[in-house]
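Review form for a predicted model. The reviewer records the input and the model, then writes brief findings.
Reviewer: anonymous (R2)
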Amino acid sequence: MRSLLRDGLRTEACVLHEAEDGEDALLSVLRTAPDLIITEIRMAGGGVEYIARLRVFVPNCPIVVMTAFGDERVKASVLRAGATAYFNKPAHLSELRACVRRLLDAKYTAVDQAVVVSEGRR
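Model under review:
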């Protein structure tokens, strides 16, 4: 799934950082200060608690959650924990790309008076 996302989002002019599990992802977040995070809650070290932990370290970063094991209860839980968007798998790549564009555009519109330097978007 990561390789499909990587290939599908490459056209969005994003610099992508991949992680094997929640711990590796959290370390990557701390190193790179991303503009947006896409994650799966059913990965090792993931879950609703993982979303809440991410939110502590990157309070203003959009977090997109994808899962094949969700329902309305899971969706509500991850949104309460701080996720910005939620997708059930299989997600349509066009919808995910539109969401990524919308979230990044909104983030940069909100800070258009500031100089923004980031490794996550070129």
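Findings: The chain has a mean pLDDT of 80.
Further findings: Residues 2-106 form a domain with the Rossmann fold fold (CATH 3.40.50.2300).
Recommendation: see findings above.
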